[in-house]
Amino acid sequence: MSMNVFRLCGDMCHVFSILVLLLRLRVAKNAQGISVRTHELFLLVFVTRYSDLLFHFYSVYNSVMKVLYILSTASIVYTIRFQEPIKSTYDQSQDTFMHWKFAVAPCALVALITQLITDGTTPHLFKMLWTFSIYLEAIAIVPQLIVLQRYGEVENLTGNYIFFMGSYRALYILNWIYRAYTEKGYHHHWVAYIAGVLQTLLYVDFFYYYFESKKKGGKMRLPTAN
């Protein structure tokens, strides 16, 4: 798996987004405005996508990044779900998106259908897990965006976390396209392109208000759901 500027910048945005969120939890000692359901979805994304850690080795960098994503996301989920005083500040009444029913189950079904179409009646398990993770990642941010819309006001570190998470996915689309044209044996993955574009589009409204708040120098505010 080759390295290029788009992948490197995307990885750094992803790592920085996770570090910003962990810093926000540790410093502020509260999880107000954070959706644990989004991070449960991301954790499932990383566990299923990086199942190849069990039988493939590409590079030290690749393996370290995969393990980092899994462990850091698991740490976020654990901190919000079980660690006081942060656990007591998590508002479950605002984080109500039924992620297992309306995200995990549909993505699993679509991934199975995709693999049946591409591989016939005997879908490859690890290919199906990869496809599932791509679909699920596209919508994993939805519970978090819903929570932010309900709160209206976005804390600065939370806003930065989501901005860098959205930037990571946009840069990875460029990485995939670049590799398809420059790396021998690498082909266009239309499933990844479509899911990546959908995921990036989900951030567009957030990006608009994020840049507006930075330009004006005030707190970031989103239109409320009321």
TrEMBL record:
It comes from the Eukaryota. GO terms for cellular component: endoplasmic reticulum membrane. One of its GO terms (molecular function) is ER retention sequence binding. It is found in: Endoplasmic reticulum membrane. The keyword Kinase does not apply. PANTHER family: ER LUMEN PROTEIN RETAINING RECEPTOR (PTHR10585). This is Lumen protein-retaining receptor. It comes from Seminavis robusta.
